[in-house]
Amino acid sequence: MTAPVLVFGWGNPSRGDDALGPLFVEAVEAMALPGVECLTDFQLQVEHALDLRGRERVLFVDASANAAAPFTVERLEPARDASFTTHAVSPQAILEVYAEIEGAPPPPCWLLAIRGESWELGASQSEAARQNLEVSIAWTRAWIASV
Amino acid sequence: MSFELETATVASENLRRVAIDPVSRVEGHGKVTILLDEHNKVHQVRLHIVEFRGFERFIQGRPYWEVPVMVQRLCGICPVSHHLAASKALDLIVGADKVTPTADKMRRLMHYGQILQSHALHFFHLSSPDLLFGFDSEVSRRNIVGVAEKYPEIAKKGILLRKYGQEVIRLTAGKRVHGTGAVPGGVNRSLTADERKDLLKDVYQMIAWSREAVRIIKELHQQNPALYDHFGSFRSNFMGLVAPDGSLDLYQGVLRAKDADGRILFDQVDYQTYDRLITEEVKPWSYMKFPYFTAMGPEHGWYKVGPLARVQNCDSIPTPFAEHERREFVAYADGQPLHATLAYHWARMIEMLFAAETIKELLQDDDLSGTDLMTTGERRREGVGVIEAPRGTLFHHYQVGDDDLVTMANLIVSTTHNNQAMNTAVREVARQYLDGNEITEGLLNHIEVAIRAYDPCLSCATHALGKMPLEVTLIDAEGAELDRKYKE
Questions:
Q1: Cβ–Cβ of A100/B149 closer than 8 Å?
Q2: Does residue B294 sit at the A interface (CB-CB below 8 Å)?
Q3: What 3-state class would DSSP assign to A15?
Q4: pTM: predicted TM-score of the whole model, two decimal places
Q5: What is A20-119's CATH superfamily?
Q6: Residues B331-359: pLDDT tens digits?
Q7: Domain locations in chain A?
Q8: Residue extents of the structural domains in chain B
Q9: What ipTM score was computed for the predicted complex, to two decimals?
Q10: CA A54, A60, A61 angle in degrees (round to 5)?
Q11: B405 forms bridges with which residues in the sheet?
Q12: How near does any CA of chain A get to the CA of B249, in Å?
């Protein structure tokens, strides 16, 4: 049976703060919360629209070079944007693709953007990013509990 | 060595520079610089790509057995190709000259799953918007959502083909991402009968959809040969792996190259000797190297890799539907090599069909459920692994010390092999579509289409939110910036 809540984080674990998405997912997975499924990937991609099927709520999580520290949360709406035109698709585009291929609105989705600072191959996470990650995980406990 | 249009032959201060940075819809970051002369004619064109940098430092000093897993983090788009190329190189380090039939077939299945999902993504979600709506159509429509709106069934098939390939990878690699299936000397798992049955259930649909995809692109060529046969077309050599009998094999084989007229340049070459065959030229204006066949020199020895090279380099394809399509492709070109940039899409779809058919054949083979997974032999210090990744030939070369730590790593990725070819394609397009006055939407579109045909993969660039803007810069003959546009 499909878990009603999906937490989907993405990024490259070996590229400094780009690992924030996967690290976040690891932390939530360790909580072993009932009704919550955790998925991760290197990049958000079109087929991930299918992972939204049967969900009640979805939390997308990525590192961000632009978000205000420690993190930002926004409710997502389906949208076309320039990111359709790259190999890496935006979460808004995933929602739009879902709506088009399923013929129905997507489940309520949020984007948690955790501020990162450095992105070099082989680098570990910056201290600021680690702190941002901790704060964002604390917020997420409350978000999941509010279901 | 320099080529026509690449290096200005008049004083550069008299040239006007047009910079387009980066090229959207191309993985990672790219930048095109077009230098114009005082008559606003194209004089110099360079495609700058952020090179796959830092990997040697990332790999050197690590235990060799970690390498097949960690190299997947070099590229978020084709991690499986790096996983398998590294495993093949490290097979030699552990003395496994030949892995067991189960290991060989599990790896092949993983690889063809990767080919299927990568080619499906490229065609249905990156290229089909251009091809179905036209290069000059409204930008807001020319994307996957536009395709999903107007051609919902095509968009859905693309997603499901990709999803199927991902499932093949998950079952063979052990995980959806960061798989560990291939290890030096073999594999660490095989498939159960139920897993094979589940995959077999859907594979016939994947073959049918792949046949449809070939039909779509074939018809586009036939309907508009003036565009498809000539857009960004230029002559070059081809290189790729073939099986020892000359048939197409994307996992294992020998190196073969043909010249622009289809004559064999070399064949049956053991890729362990690649460093005697290929030289990587460094140019001062680019981080990315320019490989060429050493014996021919840099001016004449550069080549294309990837689907267009492979489909024309082989003598046959060992699956029936794909072989039928290959013959039609060859007949369309009247027996001569097809050099058209857009023919990459057609060749790519023939390969996707080949991958789907190969997956079916492998799933019917009981060796996939075998238990003999590993081979060992005499320990060595050096190994080269080569695989035909979705975008082209991928080389992994390692030296390992007695302490089991990697002392040397050299990778040549397919985008590097295609470096000169992509530069040449952009030059041809710039000659045709730039009038020297401004960066028009049409020019941008056509340059993007030309580069995208090669499906360059540069995902060493980070993908954190907000890191991929489109930047367009216009600089005059004196070096003054005339205009700059961003597209977040």
A1: yes
A2: no
A3: coil
A4: 0.89
A5: HybD-like (3.40.50.1450)
A6: 998 889 999 999 999 999 999 999 999 99
A7: 20-119
A8: 12-50+435-487, 55-416
A9: 0.82
A10: 150
A11: B63
A12: 26
